[in-house]
Structures are given as structure tokens and as C-alpha cells.
Amino acid sequence: MVEELLTAGAAVAAAGFVYVVSAARVVKQYERGVVLRLGRLRESVRQPGFTMVVPGVDRLHKVNMQIVTMPVPAQDGITRDNVTVRVDAVIYFKVIDAADAVIKVEDYRFAVSQMAQTSLRSIIGKSDLDDLLSNREKLNQGLELMIDSPALGWGVQIDRVEIKDVSLPETMKRSMARQAEADRERRARVINADAELQASKKLAQAAHEMADEPAALQLRLLQTVVAVAAEKNSTLVLPFPVELLRFLEKAQQAQPPSPAPPAPSAKPIPKRPTAA
């Protein structure tokens, strides 16, 4: 009798151990457990830690609550200004309601991926090429709103959407390179012309100052000679300004004319005697 009781107790203990092992579950800190009992959702969501389920009756679905980084495949599209581009992006999202993520959508990751691709194509068709290249922050916000609206019904919250790269055709790249080069050349010419204008105004002012003071012109000439003679040259080119010639000419005209020498007196020519 005692042996039978011991055998029955050991069997019960073994069955209990097997039951506990089969029913025991561990939910990690970044997970939440959704229990379906006979196909029906249990209201309580299992929190992190050790939990028990009924073997063969309950089914535990673990849902990751971390932020998920999902790349969006590159999408080909035509912009509003008829330019063919290829755009790829990255999306960051997380589950905020584990029960909705299990019950209301079959695979929330796949659903978010498909919605992101569709929204990205729509954004490409509504935007100009310049917006895709320079105004990405506004496009990222619009793309986030387009994906977040249906995702909230699945228990998913879109944290951030970023457009990574915009690929252009080679012909468009060459056209943009020529446009940029022409724009840089135009700005260089405008800057050069502006510099010439400012320099001409300064030279005109200097010319007026030198016209009032002739000695300034001589000093400028001496400075030029010193600058040229500073280098090791065997030949010295000395500029001679035209204004200096005019100054000398005016000085010569200002001098009084010298008196002319007296003309020699004419002597009478003697007549030769004629032969008889």
C-alpha cells in the first residue's frame, strides 16, 4: 500500500512538473505577451517577467515593443515636373498596442512596409525635383503623416521617416552640372565686372587728386621706378607720362619770346664797266 502511494505521488509530482514546464513562459523586458484562449483574446496583456498559460488551451504571442528600423526599397517614379527619379527611404516605428498589432493586422511589419512604399510613390508624384533635393524635411513630415494615419489602427506608431537618397538619370546629372557651371561663371563675371567698376571709380578719384597736385604725379612715377628696380633686371623700363609732357609744354609757352637778332644791312652792288 505504501509503495502504491509513493508511486502515485511520484506520478503526480512528475505530471505537475511537466505541467509547470509546459505552462511556464518568460516575457522579456522589451516584449509584451498577448494570450489567446481557445481563439479568444484575453483582456490582460502579460507584462515582462515569468507568467503561466494553460497548455493546449492558451496561445501566447510575444510582441516586440522596441523601435524597429525598416529600410524602404527604392521606388521609381516621375516627379511633378516630369523627371524620372529613384528614391529610397528608412522608417522608424514601434508597437504601442500589442493586442491590436496581433488581432487587427496579420503581419504589422509587412503592412507598414507596403504602406511606406505606396506613400513614397505618392510623395514622388506630388513633388518637384528641387523639393526632393533641397526640401526633404517637409517631405519627410508629409510621408510620416501618410503612413501614421493607417498604422495607428494597427497599434503601431510611426516615429520618424527619412528619405535617404535620390538617384537621377545620367543625362539629368550632366544637365544639372552644366547649369551649375553656367551659374558659377555668371557670378564670377558679375563679381569681376563689379570689381572693375569699383577700381575705375577709385582710379578716377586718384586722377582728379593728381591733376590738382602735379607733384603727386612725380611721386607716383618715382614709386613705379622703385618697384621696377627692386627686381633683378638688366633692363629698366621707365614710363614717361603724357601729362608731364603737357606740363613742360605749358611751361615753355608761358616763357616770354627772346628778341630776334638785327638783320644785316644791304650793301650796294658796284656796276661793272662795259667795254667800248
Automatic annotation (TrEMBL):
Family annotation (SUPFAM superfamilies): Band 7/SPFH domain
CDD domains: SPFH_eoslipins_u1
Region annotation (Disordered) ranges: 251-276
Stretches of the chain forming a coiled coil according to its record: none
Domain Band per the UniProt entry, residue ranges: 22-180
Signal peptide, first to last residue: none
Pro residues bias: start-end ranges: 256-267
Family per similarity comment: Belongs to the band 7/mec-2 family.
PANTHER family named among the record's database cross-references: AT06885P-RELATED, BAND 7 PROTEIN-RELATED
Protein name as catalogued: Slipin family protein
Native species: Streptomyces rectiviolaceus
